[in-house]
Structure formats: C-alpha cells, structure tokens
Amino acid sequence: MSEASAQHTILVVEDDGAVRNLVTTALEMHGYHLDVAVTGEAAVLAAASHHPDLIMLDLGLPDIDGVDVIEKVRGWSAVPIIVISARAEDADKIRALDAGADDYLTKPFSVDELLARVRASLRRSQLAGGGAADESVFENGPLRIDYAAGCAYLGGEQLGLTPTEYKLLALLARNAGKVLTHTFITREIWGTSWDSDIASLRVFMRTLRKKIEADPAHPQLIQTHVGVGYRMQRL
Length: 235
Hints:
The chain is α/β, with parallel strands linked by helices.
C-alpha cells in the first residue's frame, strides 16, 4: 500500500455485484479508501456528503442513468469521474463526456488498466489543484483562453467545455503550430496511452470541434494529421 493511495477515497457506483467486487477488491488491495453506492441517487448523496477524490461510475444504474449522475455532480464539483460501462458506442461515450466525465473505460477491462487510469486521474487532479496559476491569455482568431481563470471564449462568448475538453484545448493552444501525436496527447491528458485512450481522444476531438469550429466538418482551428495526431493552426 502506498502512502498516496491511503490518502484517497474513491466512490464506486456499480449495481452489478461481480463487477463491483472486482473493482473494490482491486482498489482496496492497493490501499484506497472506498465508498460504495448501487443506485444513482445514493451516488449523488454520497458525492455531496463524503467528498470523494474520485468517482468510478457505471452508466446502467437501476434508478437513474449514470449521465444524470454526472450532470448532478458537475453542478457543484469538479471531482474526477471515470465511467466504467459496457456501452461501447461512440454516442454513449459522447453523452458521458459531454456531461463532464473525465475518462471512459469500457467493460471488460483489466485490473492493470483500471489502476493505471485511477492513478492518472488522481495525479491530474492533484496537479490541477496545486499548480501555480498561469496568468497569460492565449488568443487565436475568435478563440481566447484565459489560463488563470480556466475559461475559453469564442467570439467573446464563454464556451461550455467539459474539464477534459478544456485540458485538450489548452494543450493544443500551448503548442500552437506544432503537430502533437496521439500518444503525446493521451499521455498528457490521461497519463496513459492505451488503444481506448486514442478512441476517447477522437470522441473528445469531435465534441470539441462542434463547440469551437464554425464548420466542424471543415475545421480551421484544429487540423487533423491522419495517422499522426492534431495541430492547432494559427489564424
């Protein structure tokens, strides 16, 4: 058990007993403190009252959909949320990521991947909370990013970005003009570079472009380099 893991509490929201036992056993063996909920309403109550460091959330809950849980929690908290779901369609991933999920892990998954994603999410959360504020402002055509405030604007209007969409946009902006590989981006955003991370990156890029591009089918701000990665183009 590491000292770091002993300081973190994870809320596991899963109504399938077999999956719940797998997840909780793996996390407990690595020293994490756990809260468990089997319904969406119980998850929202636990998140509000216990303030976990991370939420692992199934979408197929018996009372309300997991996406509704994400939206409720995002009303007051930026706690990292990792979705664990059997739903592998892009549409389901987009709904969860748009609602504010930080990561999406498709069942079945390995314990090693589960633990790697937990470590990466907690590490990103700590860095976001403890890093010094960057007071610079990035401007590129109609796009403006205020790094200190953690906000992005398009044509003067604030963009409604999810936490991960903002991280992705900021990463591309800080490297404007450079081609960033899929592996580099996924490691910076998720801390890992699994095949599923690259699939999630494509989903995030699609939703991000819908919010910042005048014509997402013909993007001007973020260019795709097929088989390589993405680049923010200077306008």
